[in-house]
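[User]
If only I could read backbone structure tokens as easily as an amino acid sequence. I have put the entry right below:
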Amino acid sequence: MRTRFPQSSVVGRSDPFDHRGSVTPVALKMPDYGGRPLFRSRFDRILARIVGGGLFVLGIGELIGRLDEPLPLFYWLPTLWGGGVLVLMGSFHVRREKLTKVLVILGAVLGFSPSAWTVVMPVLMIALVIRTIMSPLPPASSPL
């Protein structure tokens, strides 16, 4: 059955301006990012958010632990919180995939050194960087 409005954002109706009859729930389409997610999988998004959140938690721990000598905080806080912000910004929906990759990789590199003592965070960051680099870029003709 052909509809008059094939690109309608309203599911189940052929005419989005027709409000006659019974009221049905309306489902809106999500923004189209070329038919592909910005990250390769849900695992990548979760991993990026664990790394970004972990850097924030480590920054809070360093802030609480070093209040008596504030000079080292000039190194710890910008690297931990800055890395966390960059990774989290890259893990959320950024329209340009190249920018997403750059933000995630820069955030992981920035937070790598101050979190190296945890042993777990560097392993997670290396895995995140490898998975981010290995994810395919969109074609050159893509509007993203």
Summary: Residues 42-65 form the longest helix (24 residues). Residues 42-134 form one domain.
